[in-house]
Structure formats: C-alpha cells, structure tokens
C-alpha cells in the first residue's frame, strides 16, 4: 500500500507537467492579463484608473465577459477552460466587493485596528461566500480548493512556527518602539481576527481557486509563478507602503506568493498557507500597536 501511494505521488507531478509550451502560452497570457484586469483595474483599493477602480459597471461587465468566456470554453479539456473559470469566480467576487453589501458593518472611521477589522469583515463576507458558491456550482469539490486536511504533519508545524515567530517579532519590535506589553495585548484580538479573515480570503481568492486546476493543465511551476505574479501586481498600490517602495514591495509579495503556493501544494491543504499568511499580516498590522 505504501509503495502504491508513493508511486501515485511521484506520478502526479509528472502528469501535471506534460503540457507543451505552445499549448501553455495562450492560457498563461489569459491568466496574467485577466488577473490584472480583475485585481488591478477593478479593485476599489486602487486609484490608478478612475473610470474602472471601484466601478460597479466595469466590474459587472468584466464578470459577464469572463463568464461568457468560461461558458464558451467549459467543455474544453485545456488551460483555457480552467483559466477562464477561475477568473470568472475571482471577478464575480470583486464585483460583489465593489457593490459592498456589507459596508454597513464599518462603523469606525478613525484609522484604528477596530476599523481595519470591520473593513476586513465586510470584505470577507463579500468574497468568500461568492468563491465557495460559484466553485460549487461549477461542480468543483472542496478538495479542488485545497480545503482539505491534506498532510497536517507538514503544514501544521510549519504554520504554527510561522505564527509564533511573526507574533514574537511584532511584539518585540513594538516594545522596542515604545509600546507596552499591555498595548500589544489590547490590539491582539483585533489583529488576530483581521489576519485570520484576510489570510483565508486571499488564499482562496488569489490562489486556491486557481492553483490545482492550473497545475493539472499548465504544470506546477507555471501555476505557482502565474498566481504569484498576479498576487504581486495586486499589491502595487498597497495603502500601507510608500509610493517609492511600491514596486520592490510588489516583487516581494510575488515571491511570498510563490512560497505560499508551494506551501499549499507541499501540505496538500490551504491551512498551512493560511497560517503563514497570517504571520505575514501581523507585520502589516504593526502600525496599530
């Protein structure tokens, strides 16, 4: 039995890497351009393009176009089918986010960690149910999103160490910057809630909805780096980074995205990547300590 399992594990990556370069080029370009359209042109958190960012009409049109593209390619057994389906799901989630049905949850307007938590709650409720509902409607199982236990002996120690290290670093840096330990404890529940929601939301939205289908049709290396590049460009105008550091930060985020994608595949589960992502978010939340 152990021999059979090992043979399956070795064979799977080989099968995933069989697509030829010619068959990959079109789907790769679609994934990159489509990802930029959804996550850069459509996002309400950028101000690069006034006519598209935070536009319900633009995001609705993009969702409709990608939905039509997926419907056209749905019966094809190639990269176009999986890329268009993933982009349609991501675009639909972005459209709901722009419409903002849960914005009433944001009652604070003072730049505090409580406001950040409320804003993240509204985002989470817009995006996660849409991603889960649409992938289910398309006939995909939760395993296809890495929403499975996978290999906890791999991802659990990795994720736990990441969380502990991230928390310790932020605490020590905050205290060295003049904060009391009581200050850290006061904001800790808000930071933990923010990080947990953001990590699960982004791992679903940017990675797990794409990763396993991309691996099957485009190969593991292409899947990891295509999703990482889109993840990186989606952070080019992060509000918590100065303008001069936007490009280096985006490159760093892309590299971290590749690491998180590798972690998801290595642990055969989303949860190790979620825990590691939470640790990274602690650093972003340092300003609230």
Q: How does the SSE layout of this entry go?
A:
Layout: H1 2-16, H2 21-41, H3 56-73, H4 79-99, H5 113-137, H6 152-176, H7 181-218, H8 220-233, H9 246-267, H10 271-284
Helix pairs in contact: 2-4, 2-8, 3-4, 4-5, 4-7, 5-7, 6-9, 6-10, 7-8, 7-9, 7-10, 8-9, 9-10
Description of the structure:
This protein has one domain (2-288). The protein is mainly alpha-helical. The chain has ten helices and no strands. It has helices at residues 2-16, 21-41, 56-73, 79-99, 113-137, 152-176, 181-218, 220-233, 246-267, 271-284. Helices cover 74% and strands 0% of the residues. The radius of gyration is 19 Å and the shape is globular. The longest helix has 38 residues, at 181-218. Helix 7 crosses helix 9.
* DSSP strand tally: 0
Helix content: over 70%
Percentage of residues in strands: under 5%
Radius of gyration: 19 Å
First-last Cα distance: 52 Å
Anisotropy-based shape: globular
Tell me the number of structural domains. Answer: 1
Task: Detail the poorly predicted runs.
Answer: 1-17
Count of alpha and pi helical runs: 10
Mean pLDDT: 89
Alpha-beta classification: mainly alpha
Q: Return the string of H and E elements.
A: HHHHHHHHHH
Task: Give the biggest sheet.
Answer: none
In short:
The protein is mostly helical and 289 residues long. Helix content is 74%, strand content 0%.
Task: List the keywords.
289 residues; 10 helices; 74% helix; globular; disordered N terminus; mainly alpha
